[in-house]
Amino acid sequence: MGGACSRKRGEVNEESVQRGAAAKYFKTGSSKWLNTSFRLGAKNSQGIDKCPSLIELCVHKICKDIDKFIEKYRTFSMLPRDISQLIFIELVNSHCLNETSLEAFRDCALEDILLGEYPGVNDSWMDVIASQVLSLLAVDLSGSDITDCGLLHLEDCINLQNLTFNYCDHLSDLGLEHISGFSNLTSLSFKKNNAITAQGMSAFAHLPNLLRLDLERCSKIHGGLVHLSGLTKLESLNVRCCNCITDTDMKPLSGLSNLKELQISCSKVTDQGVAYLKGLSNLVLLNMEGSPVTAACLGSISGLVALSYLNLSRCNISDDGCEKISGLVNLKVLNLGFNNITDACLVNLKGLTNLESLNLDSCRIGDEGMTNLAGLVRLKCLELSDTEVGNVGLRHFSGLRSLESLNLSFTIVSDGGLRKLCGLTSLKSLNLDSRQITDIGLATLTSLTSLTHLDLFGCRITDFGTTCLRYFKNLQSLEVCGGGLTDAGVKNIKDLTSLIHLNLSQNTNLTDKSMEMISDSKAGSGSGYVGTNDPDPESLTNLASLNISNSRITNSGLRYIKPLKNLRSLTLESCGVTANEMKKLQATALPNLLSFRPE
Amino acid sequence: MTKEEMVTLISAEGFEFVIDKKAAMVSQTIRNMLTSPGSFAESREGKVTFPEISTTILEKICQYFYWSLQYASGKETEFHIEPELTLELMMAANYLHT
């Protein structure tokens, strides 16, 4: 029987390089980190489970009873490759693969052995992995205890295309020697290896088909990039956070004209080093975050017309020389955050009308510079945190109708300016964290009904202000921590049933009554809130994280939140809540709770 | 139920399963056989023979087709698979793109 199942091949699991500067004001117990680390179940857009295929059901069945199957059949090698591959993947995903079950996959002609971060993987697994010989195309042993000797096993797997050995502390130059025979290799990754040096990297010169090389956080690779000079097919090189990389390391890259992505952030590369990149006319992405380059480096890259992503955050950029940036008309993403630039620099951004994301975090810019952003109508994301931008500057934003994310935290914007934002109805994320914003400002924003994320962390919001929140029915994340809320205000929040992250800490007047309302929308309702019209009123059952630290909540308030079964993080520091009661709550009612404080 | 709405699936041993066309179409392979005009005798006669699928397995597959329709309509029950059938069933499912 022919195989009809298809698996996606050649998909590179690229970490998003477009994340920009990480949130710098990390608030203890804040919900921000949760956005990245939580999956909320495998449901489709309608929230209905997809019907599992018969193959999926069979694979699942085998993995559930894997020991019995192995006892009966010993090997899966009689199965078509596609099927044994599916079983292998499911065993890995369900963490049911061990050295014994691995043995059943000997000589199965598997194509992919992806065991990144899988527990217990070491050299003794290599024999079975290598038995796939010519079929083997991709191997990921990231985070394993594999050694240089272990790599030797793969010698005959000459069709290998993708090799990933991130965080493998026992691999060194000796191991790299064994890689030089894999001339079909297109992707190679050795993140965070502190043993690899220039000497071992000479093996790379034998990999003429290499398209992607990732050596992020390798601390001893200085001088080794010279072995890449002949790899003219190379499209992506990541040496992020390799502090050893200097100007001389850039020289061998000058002829790699197919390079599309280059990441040299947190290196020692200066303007002189950047000068070697002049001829990389296909470069689309250049990340130099945290490197000691100045605006003079823009002279070298201003001819790179393909460039659409440029990260110069935390460099030594100043106004002087910034005019060269105006030539990069195809830029879509530009990060100039944490540089010593003023409004004078922003004049040069005026013509960059393809910009979709602009980060000016903590730059010395103010209202005057904002006039130059008025025409950037494609902007979706604008980061102005910790700048001198005020109410006058916001006037220029009225035409930025595509704006989806705007950060005005720690600016001098006050209530009077927020009215200018009320036409930006595409906004999904808005950060207004600063003390001078109050209920009055919030009341002018009720037209922003698409908002999913609203950060009012330090704003002086009172119960009166919470009545405006009912307009934001799509809110998934809300922070109101200015101290002005009482239980009456929480009553208005409980109908925001889309909420996943809620932070109400620092509101010292909140009591157990708030816990009761968050968990049950029927409690205390019936006074004209939008939510009460819903045919089936829900409570905040989608909540994955809740923080009501520094309040008057006590142990007896904990019982109310038992229905919040999706809760994974609960923070009730400096309340009348004891660690013991929290543990009890987790054990008896909230099994998904991963993180709770006090603990 | 008119004749046009039914199809006949025939196992290796010649055992015939007459089922709803809608159920059979859960299989991408059968769907292709029944819907590509002219190219398959199957699409004219509404009969498909599977010389490599045993009666036991074909019966199980027909059960899955109906289970799948139920599931899609919101009745999410568990589909039981006997351990001794699993490997053979999986190979057939692979062939039927199901």
From TrEMBL, chain A:
Keyword Ion transport annotated: no
PROSITE patterns to which the protein is assigned, alphabetical: LRR (PS51450)
InterPro entries (UniProt xref): Leu-rich_rpt, Leu-rich_rpt_Cys-con_subtyp, LRR_dom_sf, LRR_R13L4/SHOC2-like, SDS22/Internalin_LRR
UniProt keyword Repeat present: yes
Superkingdom of this protein's organism: Eukaryota
UniProt keyword annotations, A-Z: Leucine-rich repeat, Repeat
Ranges where the Disease resistance R13L4/SHOC-2-like LRR domain occurs: 283-509
SMART domains according to UniProt: LRR_CC
Gene3D superfamilies the UniProt entry points to: Ribonuclease Inhibitor
PANTHER family in the record: LEUCINE-RICH REPEAT AND IQ DOMAIN-CONTAINING PROTEIN 1-RELATED, LEUCINE-RICH REPEAT-CONTAINING PROTEIN 9
Protein name: Disease resistance R13L4/SHOC-2-like LRR domain-containing protein
UniProtKB/TrEMBL annotation, chain B:
InterPro entries hit by this protein: ELC1, SKP1-like, SKP1/BTB/POZ_sf, Skp1_comp_POZ
Subcellular location: Nucleus
Domain SKP1 component POZ: 6-66
Chief place where the protein resides: nucleus
A Gene Ontology biological process term: jasmonic acid mediated signaling pathway
GO cellular component term, pick one: nucleus
Pfam families according to UniProt: Skp1_POZ (PF03931)
Name of the featured protein: Elongin-C
